[in-house]
Amino acid sequence: METRETYVATSNTVYINTTPFIYDPRGHTFDSWASLMCEAFAAQQMEIPIHTTTWQGWAVGMMSVGLFNNEGIPDPYQFDSWDQWATAAVNAFNPRT
Predict the structure, then answer these.
(1) How high is the pLDDT of residue 8?
(2) How many other C-beta atoms can be found within 10 angstroms of the C-beta atom of residue 36?
């Protein structure tokens, strides 16, 4: 799993924050992608999708987590499909390479 590292130096101590990347949605169904996201970001206790979960409802729940909200994850109701939204979320969250 890829992670991003943020270094914060205070006095003589350096802290490393390793946050996973948002998975590329290509080749996934919504259920498989969202399940991977729940696993990668387990500390955020995101909702595991079930048969009644809508992708937009799940996405709104994801956006309510501060880690994602602070990164400008786009509004899912502006997209027609989950994978278009997920690609936009990848572009907003993952660092540029």
Answers:
(1) 42
(2) 16
pLDDT for the residue 10: 44
* Cβ neighbourhood burial of 29 (10 Å; 0-12, 13-18, 19+): exposed
Angle made by CA atoms 29, 31, 33, in degrees to the nearest 5: 70
Phi-psi region for residue 62, left (φ > 0), alpha (ψ -120 to 50) or beta?
alpha
Q: Whole-angstrom Cα distance, residue 95 to residue 91? A: 8
Contact 68, 93 (CB under 8 A): yes
Q: Read off the tokens for 37.
A: 């996201």
What pTM does this model have?
0.73
Q: What is the reported pLDDT for 53? A: 86
Which residue positions in the chain have pLDDT lower than 50? 1-3, 6-11, 14-17
Q: Domain segments of the chain: what residues?
A: 23-93
